Amino acid sequence: MVVKDNKIGDVVVLAVEGEINFNSSPDFRKAFIKVIDSKAQKVIINLAKVDYVDSSGLATLVEALQKIKGVGGKLKLANLSAKVKSLFEITKLEKLFEIFPSEEEALKTFA
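and the corresponding structure tokens:
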């Protein structure tokens, strides 16, 4: 798994490539904590290149959401594959997260 961060204005975009699973969740957590430590308040996680998320990956995403809310920030998810989106629907997590079909649409909601 690779996590690339990019800043667009005051929004941090984390582009994740690969799987978010038991083995890669700690790396994702470290990348996200680095973003929180940088005082970012607006974060988009772009999952366009993620084709698999397991239960520990979901737990890590929920933890990221809680952490950013804890510092008064907002987290949005973008570009979920059909497989990953159905996982969020099955687990009812689509009610917890703001999910957008594209990074651009998620960015617009921060304006």
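(Above: one complete record from the training split.) DSSP finds four helices and five strands in the chain.
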